[in-house]
Amino acid sequence: MTTIWITIAFAVGFSGLVYARSEKNVPQINVTITINTSIDSAFNYIVPVNLSHIFKRYKRMPAIIKTNEPEKWFKAGLTRTIFFEDGSTSKEKLLTVIPHTSFSYEIDSFTSQLRFFAKRIEGKWLFIDLGNRQTKIEWTYIIVPKNSIARILIKMIVVKDMVWLLNNALSILKEDLEGGNIKIISH
Q1: Are 121 and 109 in contact (CB under 8 A)?
Q2: Residue 93's beta-bridge partner residues?
Q3: What is the reported pLDDT for 25?
Q4: What pLDDT is recorded for position 104?
């Protein structure tokens, strides 16, 4: 009888692991906004934006207070440490930069509670020129869980707060870009 339970436990555990690794089951957040500005202006402002300006505290999500960028955040391969108001940190690496089209990055080495649940976060921004000085922005956040239990907890707890956080960041960027009181950095 014990052997049957061990076999069942192993099968359930193994299937849970396979399930957690399946691409369709990785928690993903997609947010979109249209901004009344040129694609060049949107891209050149957003890629190197000061993260403490756009990431404010929300429920369990602490605000970002600073980063330690060694140079302006425009070149693939650059890394930086992100510092949060609760004293935690994470590392971010800029993976790709395709001017006026897209950029992607990876965040890992969490010192917050997220370290128990997520291996990394993969972020990607896509900029689409709609004409008439309008730019559509699609931002995707993929939270890669450590296991199937972590995936469930991320979906139940983290995703809801993260959706608000990302939408709020986009609203701040829209206000900045449409307000015209910003300095756009060209690379």
Answers
A1: no
A2: 79, 106
A3: 80
A4: 97
pTM metric for this prediction: 0.83
Q: Which residues of the chain are under the pLDDT cut of 70?
A: 1-24, 181-187
- CA 72 → CA 132, 140, 162, distances in Å? 29, 22, 26
pLDDT of residue 185: 55
> Which pair of tokens denotes residue 17?
């692991």
Picking from 68, 76, 70, the residue whose alpha carbon sits closest to that of residue 47 is 76
Dist. CA 79–CA 176, nearest whole Å:
25
Q: How high is the pLDDT of residue 75?
A: 92
Domains of the chain from N-terminus onward: 26-179 (3.30.530.20)
Taking the C-alpha atoms of residue 25 and residue 21, their distance in angstroms, rounded to an integer, is 7
Q: How far is CA 106 from CA 4, 54, 92, 98, 161, in A?
A: 42, 18, 6, 16, 19
User: Which residues fall within 8 angstroms of residue 103, CB to CB, at 6 or more apart?
Assistant: 47, 94, 96, 97, 124, 125
Q: Are 146 and 118 in contact (CB under 8 A)?
A: yes
Residue 103 CB: number of other CB atoms within 10 A? 21
As a residue count, the chain comes to: 187
